[in-house]
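Dear colleague,

Following up on Tuesday's group meeting, I ran the structure prediction for the two-component complex that the binding team flagged. I've pasted the input sequences exactly as they went in, so you can double-check that nothing got truncated or mislabelled along the way. The structure tokens for the whole assembly follow below. Feel free to forward this to whoever is handling the docking comparison.

Inputs:
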Amino acid sequence: MFEISHETLVAFSKSWGLFYLMGFFLCVVAYAFWPSNRKRFDRAKTSILDRDDKPWK
Amino acid sequence: MIGRLTSTERQYAAVVLSLLVVAGIAMAALGRNDALGVHGVLVILFAGGLLYAVLSAFFEPEPREDREASYYDDPIKAGIVLSMAWAVFGMFMGVWVAAQLAWPSLAFDAAWSTFGRLRPTHTSGVIFGFGGNALIATSFHVVQRTSRARLAGQFSPWFVLFGFNLFCVLAVSGYLLGVTQSKEYAEAEWYADLWLVIVWITYLVLFLRTIARRREPHIYVANWYFMAFIVVVAILHIVNNLAVPISWGHAKSYTIWPGVQDAMVQWWYGHNAVAFFLTAGFLGMLYYYLPVRAQRPIFSYRLSILSFWGITFFYMWAGSHHLHYTALPHWVQTLGMTFSVMLLVPSWASAGNALLTLNGAWHRVRDDATLRFMMAAAVFYGLSTFEGSFMAIRPVNALSHYTDWTVGHVHAGALGWVALITFGSLYTLVPALWKRERMYSARLVEVHFWLAIAGTLIYVFAMWNSGIIQGLMWRTYTEDGALAYSFVDSLVAMYPYYIARAFGGLLFLIGALICSYNIWMTVRSVPLAERRDSDVPAAVAVPGE
């Protein structure tokens, strides 16, 4: 049976673990700063302050 | 409560509760004299009592309200009451065990009241009982308001709420009987754990279905935190509690994880319980109730998104800092340490975001104790996450680990952050939910605030002192290279700090009692406020006011 040695696992975690976290970080930053998202974020943060206390339907 | 269920929903309730009674009978029959048998009887009583309530109202007229026209708030109200009841119980047990450390005779020579059995009733009572019920209640409130959608179920919210409380009752009563898995914050045994899985998945489905009903194009960030809380706690709970019972008739089980892997899984669970049970959900509260109370939008929405993903992905790796200098591979310890230090960035981003939201409204923080609760919570959140990152550094941990410093750190977070943000949220939520103008007494909120702050500070300073003294005494050597102090020497040195700690906890407990009284009187006696949608001038939020 194929066995993963301790060294293989460590090498994998130290390289790909870092890459996927960096990649993930870039995706999140892109999402947060994407210009066309600005409108929905602004709406989201102000709309919770509306006094209206009823569901939309 | 039952009057607002349709007859089909009442049938659902009756069937589910009957099945639970049958499960209780099976547990009692299989368990006999084992603790499992006692718990079987408890399940029968719990489910039977609720079944009696459902059946006695079974043929009452059906509700004729238009459900789509209003939010479903009854389970939230029940959740708040349960949460405060658990707070009083859990904090009382905390004061008791703290007093036992100073005066051991308070164990009264009985098995059930020894420190080892009472201590988890305190931790589970406050974390799951108080914190969990508050999280369920506020998540039901926040998801409805921010999605502008009614809860996607009439029976399932009750199932989640009462099911979760059944788990808490089984856990806490089990500790008194001597039942434990010996895993910190996951002491409850296999049958209670299985039950919690069912309850928690129902919770997740209910939450997702409610979000799916929303009209808002964007899911408000508070819901992301609540969702992370629900999803990750499910994963943690299942993986850490994988165990094989010694038989169907016994409460005892053994974990499937061997040796150091068990330790790693336990602290992966344990630290993420801090992250996702005691942080993510409460940040959800912060991101909703703080802007609402201050009537100002959150300072930076983008920052809240960045810190959300930072917290979610960094915390996952931090657990191994609980296992410095153990059989765990050195690089895994280093990994945990590194991620713990990195965590400071998203944690301070959240704390800073909260405080900057209040910037320009400090006069309101001065006048309104409720807002001050939330401000102080953000400050304590910043302080305790800084302390946590610092203590995770291996050489610092060499001094702090196994000492009261750890206990002090946990309570700076649990009292200063988790409990304060909960009280602030409840003081905002209760008048809104029961449609009252304000809390019964603003002065009592003020008294509660100062009791909570004084209690937390006394507690934390006592534990800092005792922890560092302990740590230093344990590592002081004589010229011959022998240890200078025995363990008992260090124990004797702790005596004044243990008294101070019990006193700080007592102040905090009194605050919680005052809060319960204030909530009770708000529900009972203040006249109904004007209906909000009638003739109220719209409050316009000015960004950067």
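The longest strand of chain B covers residues 243-245.

Cheers,
M.
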